[in-house]
Write a structure and sequence with these properties.
The chain is mainly alpha-helical. The chain has a single domain, classed as Ribonucleotide Reductase, subunit A. 65% of the residues lie in helices and 0% in strands. It has eleven helices and no strands. Helix 7 packs antiparallel against helix 10. The longest helix has 35 residues. The C terminus is likely disordered.
């Protein structure tokens, strides 16, 4: 079974071909930071953004600078260690490369957007000096670190700890924190601002959606193999986790939008977070907790509702050497 201790090395016969197909799709979906053009962004930052919008952007890139590093550490220290499938580990190896690529993208963002050296250093140290980002990091450590001391998933208790780690990783960090961050980016794009940031975010958005789809498939595989792990206590923990994630991200929204950003309110952002949280519960086969609807028309093309059919879609529009704008006109 996929959560059995050990490192299965046998690729033939292939037990979990879905993960191998995810790996192959990920290889096709290759991009580089050098493809992103930030030339118009610098003009926007200097001449077009309001002070409150510049604050939003600075906070956003500060979160980006640390968020994917937390994800990368968990990939190496937890997911690769405990997911006993050579096909899945192939995908995780590719995902680790993509997370490094995202870190490079965010590094480039900070170097481009924040010319002052002192402000850059503060952005990179956001976990220590920005309370709203520090709270999100503490949330991640709370729900993910409990499996750190587990050498192998011998007991049902340890396997549930790992599942909570994986679900936090997929549904809260990549599936809520980053999806919320992308909403800010696409809000600015809807106003004709920071098109370079939006173009790079298109690639990252696609990557993160693939990462989440992979993690959810691991969860579903574990559910098929060991349904007894998914008891009422685990379900209650998942709901509590998502409630806490929404609260953390709401505090971040209050920080980003505290200066008054025209067209974007903390109330609408809270509603959007609740909407996305309900989508994550649906991904896990659980009933909604909030019952909120998506308040952002500019996110209509950035569909957070349908991930189950992602790999049924063509991916040829997202490969190296493709020219033109990348758009999200398909649900995924």
């Amino acid at each position: 079974m996929i959560l059995d201790p050990g490192f299965d090395l046998t690729l033939r016969p292939m037990k979990y071909p879905v993960f191998y197909e995810m790996y192959r799709n990920a290889i096709r979906n290759t991009w580089t930071v050098e493809e992103v053009d930030f030339s118009t962004d610098t003009v926007d930052l200097e001449r077009r953004l309001l002070p409150a919008e510049r604050h939003l952007v600075n906070r956003l890139v500060a979160f980006f600078a640390t968020g994917d590093s937390i994800v990368s550490n968990n990939l190496v220290l937890s997911l690769y260690k405990h997911i006993n499938s050579p096909e899945a580990r192939m995908y995780l190896s590719r995902q680790l490369y993509e997370e490094a690529l995202h870190v490079q993208f965010y590094l480039t963002l900070i170097d481009t957007y924040i010319p002052d050296t002192g402000e850059r250093e503060a952005a990179f140290a956001a976990v220590q000096n920005i309370p709203s980002i520090q709270r999100k990091a503490q949330f991640c450590f709370k729900w993910m670190d409990s499996v750190d001391s587990v050498a192998s998933l011998e007991s049902a208790t340890d396997r549930r700890k790992f599942l909570l780690n994986l679900i936090c990783f997929a549904c809260c960090i990549e599936g809520l924190f980053f999806f919320a961050a992308f909403a800010y980016v696409y809000f600015l794009r809807s106003k004709g601002l920071l098109n370079g940031l939006a173009a790079g975010t298109n690639w990252v958005f696609r990557d993160e959606s693939c990462h989440m789809a992979f993690a959810l498939e691991v969860v579903e595989t574990a559910r098929r193999e060991e349904p007894e792990l998914f008891d009422d206590a685990l379900h209650a923990d998942i709901v509590t986790m998502l409630e806490e994630a929404v609260e953390c991200e709401t505090q971040f929204a209050e920080d980003l939008l505290g200066g008054g950003v025209p067209g974007l309110s903390t109330r609408d952002m809270r509603t959007y977070l609740e909407f996305v949280a309900d989508q994550r519960l649906a991904n896990l086969g659980l009933p909604p907790r909030f019952g909120s609807k998506n308040p952002f028309s500019f996110m209509d093309l950035q569909d957070v509702q349908e991930l189950s059919n992602f790999f049924e879609r063509r991916v040829s529009a997202y490969q190296v050497a493709v020219t033109g704008d990348v758009v999200f006109d398909e649900a995924f």
